[in-house]
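Archive maintenance. Older records in this collection stored only the sequence; we are now back-filling the structure field for every entry so that each record is complete. The fields below show one back-filled record exactly as it appears after the update. Entries are processed alphabetically, and PF03932 family protein CutC is next in the queue.

ARCHIVE ENTRY
Title: PF03932 family protein CutC
Organism field: Muricomes intestini
Length field: 251
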Amino acid sequence: MEKFILEACVDSVESAIAAAKGGADRLELCQNLLIGGTTPVPWLFQEIRRYTNIRIHVLIRPRFGDFCYTDYEFDLICDAVQAFHELGAEGIVIGILKPDGTLDMERMKILMEKKGDMSVTLHRAFDVCADPFAAMEQAIDLGIDTILTSGQEDTCILGKDLIKKLVKKSAGRISIQAGSSVDAGVIHDMYEYTGAAAYHMSGKIVLNSLMKHRNKNLNMGGPGIDEYEIWRTDENKIKEARRVLDKLQQR
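Back-filled structure field:
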């Protein structure tokens, strides 16, 4: 049986430690998880390395929004790939699209040449591409190890039909990793339906800020963002998901 993989998406040292203690196999390290994640600063990576030895895959995404990048943004992506390779990251999480929704093969090939010995995940740029089956074959041709996907829907449950088709069509040539609204409660049914053996979750809880003094007259983030809420990975949520995967592995 294929080994089950549990990846925790984290954007803080506290969340990384909780994920490692909970039994995650690896981290997807980012910053600004509230807006879908952006490239983390190197010192966040280094600080997590001080406290854990968990495998770290670094999200390389220079900004919020779509995945069609300018030349300046692509330079930033290349620089980040090189920087995290030098820091010792085990993997990178990348994705670039053309305006027509196809995978930007020219730029992706450049990144694959720069990755060194790091593994590569095609992130959820895949979920907004025009043809997921064509993109999967291109990812396989590039030598990408994993595709992170919600099945081109808001959640993996809604996208389970596409995920099932991708798992079948991939035939073990690439790992199809289910993400978006993954927790212990959905993994068993997702596996039974799709056959996907890799899962991606944040396991987040929302904490109340320690701030006592609060100015409610301004908002420094986007509309609806509470300045006094903190997202953190919950160790117990990771443990619960780990237990489900371990039971499936033992069957």
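Update note: Strands lie at 5-10, 26-29, 55-59, 91-94, 119-122, 146-149, 175-179, 198-201, 204-208, 229-233. Residues 5-249 form a domain with the TIM Barrel fold (CATH 3.20.20.380).
Entry marked complete.
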